[in-house]
Amino acid sequence: MKKKRKEKRKSPQTRLMVVERGNGARGSLLAGGLLSNPVDCSRTREMAQSDWLTKVIYRGVVGRPIQSTSALNTLKMPRNTRTSSAAAAVSPDDPQPSTSAGPLSFYDDSSDDESGERFVPRGRVLIEDSSDSDLGSDSGDDSDLDYVSHDTSLDEDEPLSAYARRLRERNSPGQPGFRWRKKENVPTRYGFRAQPGVNTPGVDSDSSPLELFSLFFTEELMDMIVRETNRYHRQKPGPSSSHMKDWVDTSVSELGVFIGLRMAMGINQKPEQRSYWSTDLFYHSPLFPVTMTRDRFDQLSRYLHVVDNEGSHPPDDRLWKLRPAIEILQRQFSSVFTPPRRITVDESLWKFRGRFVAVTYNPSKRSRFGVKVYKLAASEGPSNGYICAFEIYTGRDRSDIPASQRAVIHLMGAAGLFDKGYDLYTDNWYTSPTLFHYLQSRRTNAIGTVRTNRKFMPTDLQVKARGQVDSRSTPTGMLCLQWRDRRVVTLLSTVHKSEMVATRSRSGFERIKPKVVVDYNCGMKGVDNSDQLAVSYPSTRKSLKWYKKVLFNLVDMTVVNAFSLHKVLGGRLTQLIFRKRLSEGLMQLGSRDGREVRSRSRSRSRSRSRSPRPAPALQGIHCQISTPHDRYRRCKLCYSRGVRRMTKMMCSGCDVSLCRTSCFEEYHTLNASTSR
To answer: Are residue 161 and residue 292 in the same domain, yes or no?
Structure first.
């Protein structure tokens, strides 16, 4: 019996067909039942490693079509049939097997031993011909035969998408199909399908900063803030004051002036808000009292609102005071600009120590206490730092999905970047095998540092000496690499191998690093760049109300996005000049409103009547400003007296550096007395 079965194993009537589904005809090859020509089965192991989902093994009898799937339940194949014997019997001149419906079986490359077995099929089927007496004689003896595994077969009526989803779930972390192997990774890099660039017509490199800012901070948002600010004053009018005039409803133009002054405060920073209207020569800034009175500015700051407090709001929404503004900005951020291929997810901390249920503590951040914000940003090119989507953390989320994984999925979905082949970079708080497996299913490439105690991580990685590398991979194309530099760094990637590349440090020395580390350092800087631009000239001021602090952080984020758009369009302005022109453009909105003009004339008369009598040379043209590039210079008055003292302040009219103390006033007093 054994000898007879061995002869049947070498029978030329058994055929092993390999079908490889290409990227361009994904699904059509399987759905149509098309078969490729017989291939050399000695290459089936390498082909199966290259794409775990696109290798399908068809078996049949030459010239004998498969009539139905029900007939396959009685078909068997001898156990331990090697592909080498089947491949040796294949002849290119033989007719092709039938393309009618039949079960599909996938190779299970779960064995890591290097024995003589080239490949072990998971489900084996022997197609028998009832007219062939030799093949059918032993059909009743199945003592050493293995039947078809229905878990890995494609049913006749099952859609291909459902079959692929079932296979993906079988290979997900935590399932038997997911395993780490000490082999070189064979990644699957998805092609980039998006079209990056500005999606709004009518803007170019000559567009003004105000035009770019208005693409995000729309008229709809401005009208809503004006309407709700006036409503809030009617709902809760403040106490009367002897020096403050009665409230007058604000307008869009006045709100623009108000926001422009807040941006000017970020450029010309002072310790207190009242200092901008001070008549002291040390703090004097003519721009603010000329543009708007201090009392009116305080009124707008007090009643600034976004929603109706007496309206109906979801009880579980902790951001209901800003929800309409957040939704408008989210919509504009994702629709105005499509980011390039490299994107990153990271969190920021907006400093706030007041009363708010979502205030978090993060010792690794400079602010330590504040409101945490998840951001999805572009990480390459002139758009580096553009925020595509954001989510404000409002407290512990008790859903089944971990908060780190849910944040990434929410941001990618809000920006509409799934299934487009983006390269997503994350840090070790977000990265996990479970998240990266999900991103693979959504055609998104993922790279990031990872914590070794994450669930389903390999536990046998060992690096001892500096420069040493150890790696593991999965059949689905996920790489886990550990590299020791000054300390141990562990990364996950779905697009890299464990290859090393030569890089040059800042000091000029050449170093050898894993390519995944080099790419991670280049791709993980979008959110950091956005935060750096925002904190350079912040428009936020101290406030006890959390929604006012968060609102102006949103304004700063909008300014950074407008500046990134300016660079994408080919603009060459620096951020300082861009913010200055944007502030001037917003303040010019009030030039057509009669109330602002009258307030300016009153502010001029008040400033003249209340200011002390300075020396004649100080009137109107001499004020303290920062030195160019904020560099230290020698004080001219101290240097004339033989004292070397450095300062960062200078006179705008005399163009000389003077100390912040009494040197400024003393220098101009001496010059005024000398001119007389």
So the answer is: no
Query: With 0-12 CB in 10 A as exposed, 13-18 as middle and 19+ as buried, what is 633?
Result: middle
Pairwise CA distance, residues 206 & 202, whole Å = 10
* Confidence category of residue 156, pLDDT binned at 50, 70, 90: low
Residue 135's CB is within 10 A of a number of other CB atoms, namely 18
For residue 90, pLDDT over 50 is answered with no
Residue 310 has what DSSP assignment?
T
Taking Cα atoms as reference points, which of 491, 482, 450, 480 lies closest to residue 464? 482
The number of domains in the chain is 3
Q: Please tell me whether residues 151 and 300 are part of one structural domain.
A: no
- Residue 192 placed within a domain: no
Chain-wide mean pLDDT for the chain?
77
- What are the pLDDT digits (tens) for 364-402? 888 899 999 999 999 999 999 999 999 999 987 777 889
Query: Rounded CA gap, 378 and 524, in Å?
Result: 9
Q: What percent of the chain has pLDDT over 70?
A: 70
pLDDT band at 666 (very low <50, low <70, confident <90, very high): confident
The C-alpha atoms of residue 520 and residue 643 are separated, in whole angstroms, by: 51
C-alpha 562/C-alpha 556 separation (Å) is 10
Q: Given CA atoms 154, 157, 161, 165 in this order, what sign does their dihedral have?
A: negative
Confidence at residue 136, expressed as pLDDT on a 0 to 100 scale: 37
Cα–Cα dist 618/176, whole Å: 81
Q: How many CB atoms lie within 10 A of CB 73?
A: 12
Measured CA to CA, the distance from residue 301 to residue 255 in angstroms comes to 10
120 and 243 assigned to the same domain = no
Residue 284 located in a structural domain: yes
Q: Are the CB atoms for 411 and 374 separated by under 8 Å?
A: yes
Mean pLDDT value of segment 74-98 = 41
Closest by CA to 484, choosing from 508, 459, 457, 462, is 462
Alpha-carbon torsion (368, 370, 372, 375), positive or negative: negative
Could you tell me if 34 and 162 lie in one domain? yes
Confidence grade of residue 155 (pLDDT, cut at 50, 70, 90): low
Give mean pLDDT, residues 207-236.
95
Strand partners, 1: none
480 Rama class: left (phi>0) / alpha (psi -120 to 50) / beta:
beta
Q: Give per-residue pLDDT as tens, 272-283.
A: 999 999 988 888
Q: Are 583 and 622 part of one and the same domain? A: no
Q: Residues 148, 245: one domain?
A: no
The Cα 142–Cα 144 span in angstroms is 5
- Note down the domain range covering 649: 615-675
* Co-location of 126 and 34 in the same domain: yes
Among 133-142, 383-392, 649-658, the range scoring the smallest mean pLDDT is 133-142
DSSP 8-state assignment for residue 591? G
Asked if residues 649 and 626 have their Cβ atoms less than 8 Å apart, the reply is yes
pTM: predicted TM-score of the whole model, two decimal places: 0.68
Q: What is the secondary structure of 542-590 as a DSSP string?
A: --S-HHHHHHHHHHHHHHHHHHHHHHHTT----HHHHHHHHHHHHHGGG
CA dihedral 500, 506, 507, 511 (to 10 degrees): 0
